[in-house]
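How a chain folds remains the central question behind the approach discussed here. No coordinates are needed to read the tokens, only the vocabulary itself. For completeness, the protein is quoted in full, as a sequence line and a line of structure tokens:
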Amino acid sequence: MTKLDIAKDIIKENYEDAECGIFNSRNMVGDPMVNLYNANSLCIDICYNYAYFEVFGLSDKEFHELEKFYNDLARNEGMSF
């Protein structure tokens, strides 16, 4: 399983708790973060207070693909019945 596949699984599993964004840079205001995954040079944190993810360790291309995946989850959430 690639780092991107792992990231997609974790994002999908936790999307409901972080539907306000996904970033590949550390927040500068000190929002409280909880680590969801940290192995194989991939780190995924979540901020429950403001509902967003921080993802580190993916290439720019991989992160762009993860953003598209995240946005697709958002679109599909809006279509739920």
User: Anything to note?
Assistant: The two ends are 32 Å apart (CA to CA).
